[in-house]
Every structure is written in structure tokens, then in C-alpha cells.
Amino acid sequence: xxxxxxxxxxxxxxxxxxxxxxxxxxxxxxxxxxxxxxxxxxxxxxxxxxxxxxxxxxxxxxxxxxxxxxxxxxxxxxxxxxxxxxxxxxxxxxxxxxxxxxxxxxxxxx
Amino acid sequence: xxxxxxxxxxxxxxxxxxxxxxxxxxxxxxxxxxxxxxxxxxxxxxxxxxxxxxxxxxxxxxxxxxxxxxxxxxxxxxxxxxxxxxxxxxxxxxxxxxxxxxxxxxxxxxxxx
Lengths: 110, 113
Description:
The complex is a heterodimer of chains A (110) and B (113).
Chain A: E1 4-7, E2 10-14, E3 19-25, E4 29-37, E5 43-48, E6 52-56, E7 59-64, E8 69-74, E9 83-91, E10 99-100, E11 104-109
Parallel strand pairs in A: 2-11
Antiparallel strand pairs in A: 1-3, 3-8, 4-5, 4-9, 6-7, 7-8, 9-10, 9-11
Chain B: E1 5-7, E2 10-13, E3 19-24, E4 31-37, E5 44-50, E6 53-56, E7 65-68, E8 75-79, E9 88-95, E10 103-104, E11 108-112
Parallel strand pairs in B: 2-11
Antiparallel strand pairs in B: 1-3, 3-8, 4-5, 4-9, 5-6, 7-8, 9-10, 9-11
């Protein structure tokens, strides 16, 4: 099946710093989503981004489908950005289920 | 728009007991998913429904897990009997169409002791 790899696995930042999270996937996809899992366990959809670039406030994401990777940018990080970030993909041509990476734990210190 | 509703939020049971989780998807979303997330891992699909039919249950441990989606709206996931390794967060998600964006509920955190 498709492999989804996220890097780095963990990141610690000072408030105000910028960061880039990377997601590599091993096969073509119909869909890619970035999620933020808050301390209470809820998965919050950040971006639905099978290709191209989107921005939402301090967050932006870019997916280059032909090169099988996606990037999530967090600018001017805040303590509330802490949590686990997941990349998830919907493989093209396979069973229609979202496949998750292992996640990246972000800690933003005040 | 109301989100995906799940209940209960937390549940603690002893091994060999049974437990049930409930999910109400976003209105109009035909596809519903149950995911299991073990601590420190990404969510993994247990079962996928399209309306009231099962599309994929290949990862569902059918000897102890069961799920239904009567009338193509609400869904319940049951575990009987529970094992210690079933301790996890159980997430429900729905999509308007199968390649569309997933919306997840707040999850049910199950602890089996």
C-alpha cells in the first residue's frame, strides 16, 4: 500500500518562530489533507490540498503532486499551535480510504 | 454547519466487558468512517460505510468488533469482549463524496483495564 512519511518527527520552537513540515508519499493521490490534533484528541482539518498552494492566516500549504510531497508552513508560531500534525492521503486507484502518516509533534514554548 | 458528533467522550471498562460508541455524521454526508488511533500512532481505518452499506471492513477485527449504520445516517461501533490492546481513541469521520475532505468528530477515548 501507499507509504506516507512525515518529517521531522518532533519539533520544539520558541513562540514567534517559523517552521516547515514535510509529507512525502509513495504513489499518486486523489486527496491530501493536513490535520492538527489538539491535546483533547480531536483532528482539526487544516487544509484539503491535493495540489497547489493554499493559505489560511499564519498557515499555508503546498502540494506538488507530480513530485509526491506536500509542505505545511507555520509562521509566527504560537503556543496554541502545539500538538500533533498529521498528513493523510487518499490513494488514487486504490480503496478509497484516507491513509495517515505517523504524525509530527510540535511544541511551541512561550 | 454542525460537525460530526460522537459519544461518549471517554469510557473506562474492564477487559472482557462490552462497549458501544455512537456517531452522527454531517447531514447529507453519504460516507462514514470509523478509525482507531492507538497512542503515538496515526489513525487506522476500521470500517467504511457508503450510505448503509459496508464498503471496506478489511481491518475490522470481526471476532470482537461490529458496526452498523442503519438508515444510512447514525452509526454505532461495538466491541465485545474488549481486550487491553483495544485501548485507543475511536474516531468517526464523514465525507460528502469519497474523494472529498474528511471531517472528524472529537473521538471517544477508550481505556480497557
